[in-house]
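User: Show me a protein chain along with its predicted structure.
Assistant: Here is one chain, sequence first, then C-alpha cells.
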Amino acid sequence: MHKICVPFFFLCLLPLLSLGQVANFWYDMHGEPVTVYHQNDVFAFRLTGGDLYLDSLPSAIVHTVTNRVDHPDHLTVVEFVPGYPDSVYEFVRDYIRQHPNYECGFDVVNIAPNRPNTMRGWSPIDDVLLISFRDPWFGPADIAALETRHGVQLYRTPPVGMPPGYSHCYFFKVAQPFLCETGNRTIDVCRKIWETDSARVIAVEPNLLQMIEVLTTDPFYAMEWHIQNSGQPLAYGDPGTFDADHDIDLMWGLGLDGSGIRVAVIDLDGFDLAHEDMQGAFVNPWDAINDIPLLPGRQNPNSAHGMCVSGIIAARSDNALGIAGVAPACEIVPILMNGSLASIVTAFLKAQDTTLRIDILNLSWRTVFSAGNIQNEIRNAKKSGRNGKGIVIVAGAGNYDADTVTLPAAYPEVISVIASVASNLNTEFGV
C-alpha cells in the first residue's frame, strides 16, 4: 500500500472554477472526426506491480479506486469527487506518479459532445489500438513498415480459422517509450495513422470502452406468452391478448426446434455454464476479454444478462425444469465481452472461426457510437459464415421507446428486432 499525505488545506478546497473540456479526435472509417473530451475528474494509469488502495488517498477528493488486475489492460482507475478545480486533482495525480511502480498515465475521455464531466460517463483509453487493413493479404513486411512509421508494435493477429480473403482486425500497442501523458497518446497515434495511411486501412481506432447497454421458463412455460399467448394472466402488467405471440409452438410441431443450429451469444456477463436447464446447450465457451476459453467463475456474479438471453433461446424443453427456449434443441456458444472495443472485435472474430460452425449471432445490447472495426467484422461475418452463405446476425433495436434504431442493429447487415408486449391489442404475430 502506497500512503499519500495531503495537506489539510487541499482537502478543504471548494470548487472555485469551471474548466472547459479539451477536445481530441481520431477519424472514423469514412474519414470524419470522432470527437471526445478529456475527463479531468478521472485518472487512469498502469502500475508494473502492486495495487493502489482507496484508504491511501484523501477521501474528500477521491471517490473510488479500481485496480483492474484481472483485465488485460491492468489499469488502475481513480475517480475524483467531481467539481474541484483541476489543480486539486493534479496535486493528487502528482502524488500517485510517485508510486514506485508507476509506469504511465492514460487518457480518460467522455464521448458525449458538450457533456459535463460526470463519474461513469467516461472511458479510459489504454495503449491498444485496432486496425483493419483494406488489403486482405497485408503481409509481415507491410506490418513491419507500419510499425516503424508510427512507433507501434503488433500485439495480436486475426486468429487461425478465419475464412481467407477477408480483411480482419489486427491489434497493435503504442510502443514504449513513445507512450506517455505528454507524448504520443493512443488517440494521437490513431489520428496520425489515418492521416498517413488511410489508403491502406479501413479503420484505426483506440480501445475505447463502448459503455454497452444491455437490452433486456417447463414449470413456467405457461408464462411464456411470446411462444403461445392464450390471454393467460401474467405475473406483471395486464393479462395477455389471445394470439399476440409468435406461434413458436407450431414450429416445434413441424420439427423446427433448433436441432443442428448453433447460436453465438455475445454478451457482457452471466453465463452459468452448469445451469440445470441448459444441460448440453453450451459448447465452446469463449472469454473474448482475455482471448482464452471461458471457464466457470469468469462471469459476473452480480448480473445474469447473458444467461437470460441464452435461456430464452435454448433452455431445454420437456425436462420438468424452468422454461423452454424458443429453439430448445439448438446449441449456444457463449462469448464473454466487457464492452471494450477490443473485446467486442475479438468476440466477432471468434464467431467467424470456421471450426465453430456458427449459424446465428445474437447481440442483445447496443453501443454508444459507431466503430469501423466492429462494422467491418459484421460485414465479414455476414458474407463469410456458413460456408459462404453468411452468418445470420440479430440485434435488439434499443431500449426506452427510442424513435431510432441503435447500433449495432442499425448496420445494414444486421436484422433489427423490436419488442412487443403480451397485451398488444393491435398486433397479432400468429400465422
